[in-house]
């Protein structure tokens, strides 16, 4: 199969604030930072992806799709795809079972109304996947999840393809502790080299309000340049999930 790289973007918007942003509407600084991710960070990321003809999988909460329908609808255009990231971005492990199921149903409905198709993939907010939500995903016919950390390679969990993640490969924890983009780039390049050496797939996760800043987006550019130079295939999560399911 050869080494593969999936760029995944969590487009949280204001839903990424505590409680899905509820009660934060009057806190204009917090709200504007999250809006920046949609209006400024996201176009910058899309520009880098276009320069490399790189497809990406965008994980979007339902309320973010409802608040920014034009921007989210555009993400469904080829070669990209939109997947489910909860409805209000509340962590599943903090919710009772009925609310976990409602988050899945309402988030799917919101994405269908905006992008015109039902999502086939899911990523738990905070990567806090629970048994209840996993069972609901399977019952709803989802094809893949990208929330767990049980392997470096894709694997299966209760009939779903799992496309594993890790905190070290996510921009958010890195920039919670430093402002230096070079550190994140070093980690991503080292993991890309390991994926090439081990002939496997790799997922990286980024956020428009974080890596979409002008002085940080070069991390994505340099990662993609290294991947193309090494002959790594750039793939969406749906393509990987389909290949694993039929292998």
TrEMBL record:
This is Polysaccharide deacetylase family protein. It comes from the Bacteria. GO terms for biological process: carbohydrate metabolic process. InterPro entries: Glyco_hydro/deAcase_b/a-brl, NODB_dom. GO terms for molecular function: hydrolase activity, acting on carbon-nitrogen (but not peptide) bonds. SUPFAM superfamilies: Glycoside hydrolase/deacetylase. Residues 28-235 form the NodB homology domain.
